[in-house]
């Protein structure tokens, strides 16, 4: 609604665009995923503090926990991929095409 | 895999879907969906082949994006209504974002690109879990927010799914990809009726799960993953050819079999709501689905495909794989049509 919210939403949109359009490395997609979860954290904390919704103050921290889980599993998959291919170039993901 | 880890992963999978379906707080629904993704990725990597790794990575990326979009929709809903109860959404932007996020999770078009590739890269039973159990959680959320979903977006996505599920499956010989495209088409049928009568979505989901479970269990008996291997089943287990044919025709939606029931109900509900062009087009494009099922049934059951041995049949051993619930599932997926009035308990 206000300008700060629009700012954080633009940050989310830029990170989302970075996640959807990554050129050669898989790790840049994981990085943009982290950017997305960071902007969501700030947006949630902002909304909850703005409306003095004290009971929900725990929620951004729980969000951060699950963001860390996603990052961990993303990195684990990245490690397995670089075990088989040596790099994380996305052009190598062509085993499963028709 | 170590049985302790396997039990832990499967129980987390079941628990996460239960969390999503019974929760009334948006955060818990989101947590359930995250746990769902976390639990199934190690199951998909049971044998760490490069194909399974690639499938897991593609699945992870798409589902993580969908979770992030879902969280954004939840927070926008919070901004405009300042409450976390799962009921209808209070902002059209949040509604559109959440519908798109759940469509990515389900594999509706235009977000369907991950489904064939991920289904292809994983073992058959894991593919079964992916195509049946994983659909329960997003559809339960869609069911709960159904009063506030944008009609045009939903109808566009579901009709596009039916088209793409029909056309995409035509050029495939790999059975897992065929099942993936069939899943996309059935999801399209399910989400068409969501805004008019959500209990028919549940009916379609139930019948679809039964039919897909039957199909995958039949395929897992011989470990067949291509059409070529499937056409050899007359040699090893001749009775499976009949069951495969009946199940495939039921999935295509032919009348005396169960698969006709959800299609009939959906077309009836749509015509009650005065949309005539959409069910006509849906029924016509369901023929595309029926074509590739018929092709599979033809090469499996209606012809004796040339095989490598000289005898007409191989020596019949006792089956070593467990046919869990297979007779029950076959009966349920072919003979349930006369019991249609029973499904009013879903209302």
TrEMBL record, chain A:
GO terms for cellular component: mitochondrial inner membrane; respiratory chain complex I. Keywords: Electron transport, Membrane, Mitochondrion, Mitochondrion inner membrane, NAD, Respiratory chain, Translocase, Transmembrane, Transmembrane helix, Transport, Ubiquinone. It is found in: Mitochondrion inner membrane. This is NADH-ubiquinone oxidoreductase chain 4L. The keyword Transit peptide does not apply. Core subunit of the mitochondrial membrane respiratory chain NADH dehydrogenase (Complex I) which catalyzes electron transfer from NADH through the respiratory chain, using ubiquinone as an electron acceptor. Part of the enzyme membrane arm which is embedded in the lipid bilayer and involved in proton translocation. The keyword Electron transport applies. It comes from the Eukaryota. Core subunit of respiratory chain NADH dehydrogenase (Complex I) which is composed of 45 different subunits. The chain crosses the membrane at residues 6-22, 29-49, 55-81. Its EC number is 7.1.1.2. Pfam families: Oxidored_q2. GO terms for molecular function: NADH dehydrogenase (ubiquinone) activity; oxidoreductase activity, acting on NAD(P)H. GO terms for biological process: ATP synthesis coupled electron transport. Belongs to the complex I subunit 4L family. It is an enzyme of class 7 (translocase). Its main location: mitochondrion. It catalyses: a ubiquinone + NADH + 5 H(+)(in) = a ubiquinol + NAD(+) + 4 H(+)(out). It is a multi-pass membrane protein.
Automatic annotation (TrEMBL), chain B:
The chain crosses the membrane at residues 57-80, 92-115, 151-171, 202-220, 241-261, 281-305, 325-346. It is a multi-pass membrane protein. Residues 23-287 form the NADH:quinone oxidoreductase/Mrp antiporter transmembrane domain. Residues 290-343 form the NADH dehydrogenase subunit 2 C-terminal domain. It catalyses: a ubiquinone + NADH + 5 H(+)(in) = a ubiquinol + NAD(+) + 4 H(+)(out). Its EC number is 7.1.1.2. The keyword Metal-binding does not apply. Keywords: Electron transport, Membrane, Mitochondrion, Mitochondrion inner membrane, NAD, Respiratory chain, Translocase, Transmembrane, Transmembrane helix, Transport, Ubiquinone. GO terms for biological process: mitochondrial electron transport, NADH to ubiquinone. GO terms for cellular component: mitochondrial inner membrane. It is found in: Mitochondrion inner membrane. Core subunit of respiratory chain NADH dehydrogenase (Complex I) which is composed of 45 different subunits. Interacts with TMEM242. This is NADH-ubiquinone oxidoreductase chain 2. It comes from Monodon monoceros (Narwhal).
């Amino acid at each position: 609604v206000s300008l700060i919210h629009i700012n954080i939403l633009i940050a989310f949109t830029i990170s989302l665009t970075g996640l959807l359009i990554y050129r050669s490395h898989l790790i840049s997609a994981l990085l943009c995923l982290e950017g997305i979860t960071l902007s969501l954290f700030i947006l949630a904390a902002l909304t909850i503090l703005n409306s003095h919704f004290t009971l929900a103050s725990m929620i951004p921290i729980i969000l951060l926990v699950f963001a860390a889980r996603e990052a961990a599993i993303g990195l684990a998959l990245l490690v397995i991929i670089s075990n088989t291919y040596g790099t994380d170039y996305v052009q190598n993901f062509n085993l499963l095409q028709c | 895999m170590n049985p302790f880890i396997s039990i832990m992963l499967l129980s987390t999978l079941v628990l996460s879907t239960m969390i999503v379906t019974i929760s009334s707080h948006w955060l818990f629904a989101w947590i359930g969906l995250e746990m769902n993704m976390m639990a199934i990725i190690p199951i998909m990597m049971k044998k760490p082949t490069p194909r399974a790794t690639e499938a897991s990575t593609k699945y992870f990326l798409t589902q993580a994006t969908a979770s992030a979009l879902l969280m954004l929709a939840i927070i926008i809903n919070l901004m405009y209504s300042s409450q976390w109860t799962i009921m209808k959404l209070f902002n059209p932007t949040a509604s559109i974002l959440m519908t798109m996020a759940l469509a990515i999770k389900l594999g509706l078009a235009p977000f369907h690109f991950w489904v064939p590739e991920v289904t292809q890269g994983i073992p058959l039973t894991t593919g079964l879990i992916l195509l049946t159990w994983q659909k329960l959680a997003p559809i339960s959320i869609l069911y709960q927010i159904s009063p506030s979903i944008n009609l045009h977006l939903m109808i566009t996505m579901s009709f596009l799914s039916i088209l793409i599920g029909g056309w995409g499956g035509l050029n495939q010989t790999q059975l897992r990809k065929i099942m993936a495209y069939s899943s996309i088409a059935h999801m399209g049928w399910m989400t068409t009726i969501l805004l008019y009568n959500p209990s028919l979505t549940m009916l379609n989901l139930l019948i679809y799960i039964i039919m897909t479970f039957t199909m995958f269990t039949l395929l897992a008996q011989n470990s067949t993953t291509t059409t070529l291997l499937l056409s050899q089943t007359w040699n090893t287990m001749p009775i499976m050819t009949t069951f495969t044919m009946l199940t495939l025709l039921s999935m295509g939606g032919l009348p005396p079999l169960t698969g006709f029931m959800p299609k009939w109900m959906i077309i009836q509900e749509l015509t009650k709501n005065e949309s005539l062009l959409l069910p006509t087009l849906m029924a016509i494009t369901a023929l595309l689905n029926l074509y590739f099922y018929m092709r599979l049934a033809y090469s499996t059951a209606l012809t004796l495909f040339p095989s490598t041995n000289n005898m007409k049949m191989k020596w019949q051993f006792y089956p070593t794989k467990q046919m869990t619930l297979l007779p029950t599932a076959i009966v349920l997926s072919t003979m349930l049509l006369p019991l249609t009035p029973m499904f009013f308990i879903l209302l």
